[in-house]
């Protein structure tokens, strides 16, 4: 079998990274993806990014702007399960390829529209390029760099966020179609991708609870007892520690030589703020301390003390990592330019529905003559004996979330938003993330909660009763721990042969790094994100927007949905594994490398952190900055005219996309001079009036304001609720918009043990048994006990 999506047919008429990454994921796991390309290919037909994002796909030429091309696309759609387009708001309808028309003709088709900002709101008509969204919504101000002013974000976090929610939405719509018998429309956008990522760090609550300090001299974690930044060592190499584990902060201070001035905390360390002496040590003296030893020495010391720490790498370095090679994630593909290249292959591990190695990206039009082979599979057809229709795509699915911290819980929360009944099982003292209100809310809203002592036979019996009625078990324990508390796969499979066992560890169930602790943003640094965001030749930046907690949550949701669809199609259940390391590898998968480790980058941020190319970057103006996104000859001609220099478009150095790439420095110099003579408003007006995609970068993050936009509330992208601990809250709501079976907000994060009694009763315990269990294995510590 070629993976859990074997037999699925997807027609991909989109452009840009977000949809391309989403359909690459579908192809990686077995779908037949047909990429619809303009005859001769577009501007990126020879770009390095195509080597990865188009792997495993077929290429068929058809121009949607011609009658013959549209007819060809409709012919492909007639044999497809999913159609993906990113034409822009209203353009699909104008081409005769809109949802209403196609749904009437092909009622089982899942129709996917990926736009810049969605179909409603003040930004809906703006050009949909990631860098322009980063500028318009203030993300270029939110991510700091090596200079003042807006920073071009070298890591395409919004593209990956959008790709993930698009894939999650597609897989959810396919499940709903199986049960309800009809396809529907899925709307996602770069805005939704940005919001899904922002849900980790941005919310409003009337008590002003946040784990981040956003102002003052101690931006970042402020007085939190937490250290997790890049530190340079004596040999010039970099590492990232994380002191989030029990007692890890004090042990780190002991190793660094500050133990005599650091408190010993009984209980969760992050619940106790740093005093003034400790704050100065943590934020000012620790960086100097790390410069006293080489990186390998520090890593050995920290790992021996069970403290999470990892090296910082460049993306191409990761192919040599011992855990990565052990897991078999890298693949080798033939390549016309380099002979053979290395890529990050399919990252999810399946016990049974294992995917094949993808084929290399096709040449434009390579499969023009093979369209007759495209046919839908009965495997994906709706059920003939239709059950009661579902109102939510995951209605009827029960998920047990045994996880701690953010990543796995966030994945389960995304599934809860789509209708799954998610029960979070916490230890009696609570998840260590509970003191970090915004993180806990972002990962756990909408769930039910039971507090349980899983170290006791009674607690394990309750867990086993839960498993007996569950569809999915999710956890992120380190290897071996689940088995010690009777939650190993073999044990649970014996209890419930139909259960899907989703394991989301840090590094994997086996391998040289499998026993290490994993916290964000360490793994992101290990796979190269800090260098990807820093600019050519620069030291790593402190943080990129987006990290393995978010990415592993997204990938965990994808993993569970793949397994659920496979079970629905075949009746087969299995264990699946999606480590944080693998999700982090996936988000640098647009890059390749030669066999000798030389980078074959899809893009590279310049040293000044202004952009990826002369036509996709920031330029200084007379009074600020402007961001542009210019692709194709026609757009370049409009740019030259708007700037009063039409001769640029006829200059032999810049005549074609290839010429402009060869002469990139000369083009950048010419544009730099032209923009320097204009103020930002004048430059924007000239470009916008000429239909040249551009934005003036906002100098602050828009997120706090966006939470109060009525259009965002009306479109369910923002939700408001009252929480017993946090008071009135506003936070990111639904980011996947399904026309017929939409997701729904089910309330804020549960209080510890909030549903224990209710759940015990559901499991069949008598009232007396419930009373006894609530006083023992479900008993929460009293306030006095917490103080002691």
Question: What this model shows, in words?
Answer:
35% of the residues lie in helices and 15% in strands. With 788 residues, the chain is of the alpha/beta class. It has a 7-stranded mixed beta sheet with strand order 3-2-1-4-5-6-28, sandwiched between helices. Strand 20 and strand 21 form a beta hairpin. The longest helix has 24 residues.
| Uncertain spans | 783-788
Query: Spatial order of the strands in the main sheet?
Result: 3-2-1-4-5-6-28
Residue-averaged pLDDT, rounded? Answer: 93
Gap from first CA to last CA: 57 Å
Q: Which outline best applies?
A: globular
Helical coverage, percent range: 25-40%
Largest sheet: 7 strands, mixed
Number of helices: 32
Classification by helices and strands: alpha/beta
Number of E strands: 28
Strand content: 5-15%
Over the alpha carbons, how many angstroms does the gyration radius reach? Answer: 26 Å
What labels would you give this structure?
single chain, 788 residues, alpha/beta, seven-stranded mixed sheet, 32 helices, globular
Please describe the topology of this protein.
Elements lengths: L8 E5 L3 H12 L3 E6 L10 H6 L4 E4 L5 H11 L4 E4 L5 H4 L4 H7 L4 E6 L14 H7 L2 H4 L14 H24 L4 E5 H9 L4 E3 L25 E2 L5 E5 L5 H9 L19 H15 L4 H10 L3 E4 L10 H6 L2 E6 L3 E6 L4 E2 L47 E4 L5 H11 L3 E6 L10 H8 L3 E4 L5 H12 L3 E4 L5 H4 L4 H7 L4 E4 L18 H6 L1 H4 L15 H23 L4 E3 L2 H7 L5 E3 L4 E2 L10 E3 L2 E5 L4 E5 L3 H10 L4 H4 L6 H6 L1 H13 L3 H10 L4 E2 L7 H4 L3 H5 L3 E6 L3 E6 L4 E2 L17 H7 L4 H8 L8 H5 L1
Parallel strand pairs: 1-2, 1-4, 2-3, 4-5, 5-6, 14-15, 14-17, 15-16, 17-18, 18-19
Antiparallel strand pairs: 6-28, 7-27, 8-9, 9-10, 11-12, 12-20, 13-19, 20-21, 22-23, 23-24, 24-25, 26-27
């Amino acid at each position: 079998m070629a993976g859990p999506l074997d037999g699925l047919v997807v027609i991909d008429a989109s452009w840009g990274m977000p949809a391309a990454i989403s359909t690459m994921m579908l192809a990686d796991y077995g779908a037949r993806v047909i990429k619809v390309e303009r005859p001769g290919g577009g501007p990126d037909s020879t770009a390095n990014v195509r080597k990865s994002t188009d792997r495993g796909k077929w290429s068929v030429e058809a121009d949607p702007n011609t009658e013959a091309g549209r007819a060809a696309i409709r012919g492909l759609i007639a044999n497809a399960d999913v159609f993906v387009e990113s034409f822009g708001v209203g353009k699909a309808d104008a081409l005769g390829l809109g949802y209403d028309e196609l749904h009437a003709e092909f009622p089982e088709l899942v129709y996917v529209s990926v736009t810049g900002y969605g179909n409603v709101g003040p930004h809906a008509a703006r050009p949909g390029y990631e860098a322009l969204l980063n500028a318009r919504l203030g993300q270029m101000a939110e991510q700091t760099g090596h200079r003042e002013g807006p920073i071009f974000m070298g890591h395409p976090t919004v593209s990956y966020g959008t790709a993930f929610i698009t894939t999650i939405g597609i897989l959810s719509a396919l499940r709903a179609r199986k049960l309800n018998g009809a396809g529907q429309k899925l709307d996602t956008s770069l805005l939704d991708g940005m919001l899904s990522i922002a849900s980790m760090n941005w919310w409003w609550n009337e008590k002003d609870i946040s784990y981040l300090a956003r102002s003052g001299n101690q931006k970042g974690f402020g007085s939190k007892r937490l250290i997790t930044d890049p530190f340079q060592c004596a040999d010039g190499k970099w590492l990232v520690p994380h002191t989030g584990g029990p007692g890890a902060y004090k042990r780190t201070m002991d190793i660094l030589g500050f133990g005599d001035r650091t408190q010993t905390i009984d209980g969760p360390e992050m619940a106790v703020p740093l005093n003034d002496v400790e704050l100065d040590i943590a934020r000012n003296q620790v960086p100097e301390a790390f410069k006293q030893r080489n990186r390998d020495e520090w890593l050995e010391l920290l790992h021996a003390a069970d403290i999470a720490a990892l090296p910082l790498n460049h993306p191409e370095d990761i192919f040599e990592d011992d855990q990565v090679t052990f897991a078999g994630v890298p693949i080798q593909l033939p390549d016309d330019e380099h002979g053979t290249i290395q890529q990050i292959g399919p990252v999810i591990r399946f016990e049974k529905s294992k995917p094949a190695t993808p084929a290399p990206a096709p040449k434009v039009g390579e499969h023009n003559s093979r369209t007759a082979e495209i046919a839908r599979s009965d495997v994906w057809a709706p059920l003939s004996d239709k059950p009661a229709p579902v109102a939510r795509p995951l209605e009827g699915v029960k998920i047990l979330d045994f996880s701690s911290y953010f990543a796995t819980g966030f994945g389960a929360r995304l599934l809860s938003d789509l209708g799954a009944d998610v029960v979070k099982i916490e230890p009696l003292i609570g998840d260590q993330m509970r003191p970090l209100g915004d993180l806990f809310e972002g990962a756990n809203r909408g769930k039910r909660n039971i507090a349980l002592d899983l170290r006791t036979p009674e607690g394990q019996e309750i867990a086993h009763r839960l498993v007996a009625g569950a569809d999915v078990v999710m956890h992120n324990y380190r290897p071996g721990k689940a088995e010690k508390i009777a939650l190993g796969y073999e044990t649970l499979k014996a209890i419930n042969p139909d259960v899907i066992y989703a394991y989301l560890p840090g590094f994997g169930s086996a391998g040289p790094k499998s026993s290490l602790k994993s916290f964000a943003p360490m793994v992101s640094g290990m796979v190269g994100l800090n260098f990807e965001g820093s600019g050519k030749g620069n030291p790593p930046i402190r943080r990129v927007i987006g990290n393995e907690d978010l990415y592993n949550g997204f990938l965990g949701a994808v993993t569970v949905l793949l397994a659920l669809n496979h079970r629905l199609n075949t009746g087969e259940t299995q264990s699946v594994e999606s480590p944080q390391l693998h999700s982090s590898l996936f988000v640098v998968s647009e890059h390749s490398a030669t066999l000798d480790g030389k980078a074959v980058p899809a893009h590279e941020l310049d040293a000044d952190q202004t952009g990826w190319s002369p036509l996709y970057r920031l330029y200084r103006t007379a009074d600020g900055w402007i961001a542009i996104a210019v692709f194709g000859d026609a757009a370049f001609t409009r740019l030259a005219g708007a700037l009063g220099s039409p001769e640029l478009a006829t200059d032999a150095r810049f005549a074609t996309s290839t010429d402009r790439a060869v002469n990139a420095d000369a083009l950048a110099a010419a544009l730099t001079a032209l923009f320097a003579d204009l103020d930002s408003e004048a430059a924007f007006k000239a470009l916008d009036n000429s239909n040249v995609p551009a934005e003036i970068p906002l100098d602050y993050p828009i997120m706090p304001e966006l939470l109060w936009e009525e259009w965002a509330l009306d479109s369910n992208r923002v939700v408001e609720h009252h929480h017993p601990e946090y008071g009135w809250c506003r936070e990111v709501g639904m980011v996947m918009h399904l026309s017929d079976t939409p997701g729904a907000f089910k309330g804020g994060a549960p209080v510890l043990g909030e549903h224990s009694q209710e759940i015990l009763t559901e499991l069949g315990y008598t009232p007396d048994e419930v009373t006894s269990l609530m006083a023992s294995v479900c008993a929460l510590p009293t306030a006095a006990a917490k103080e002691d």
